[in-house]
Structure to design on (77 residues):
């Protein structure tokens, strides 16, 4: 271990302060990462809902077209 001098204690204090700063910021960083992940997931869920609705509309439109063809007697074969 290094012998105690004024310079060694300053270095030790600087390292200790850096470690305390990182430890003190950890909860805020964890929450910000959580909030970012949740907002990303919510955005993707919204995108999936829109895509699902568009696909359902396409199927519905095809079904209506087929029903109208059956009613009018043109099977399209």
């Amino acid at each position: 271990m290094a012998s105690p001098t004024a310079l060694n204690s300053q270095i030790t204090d600087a390292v200790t302060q850096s470690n305390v700063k990182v430890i003190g910021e950890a909860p805020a960083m964890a929450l910000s990462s959580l909030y970012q992940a949740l907002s990303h997931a919510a955005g993707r869920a919204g995108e999936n809902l829109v895509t699902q609705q568009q696909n359902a509309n396409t199927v519905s439109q095809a079904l209506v077209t087929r029903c109208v063809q059956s009613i009018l007697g043109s099977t399209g074969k």
Notes: The mean pLDDT is 85.
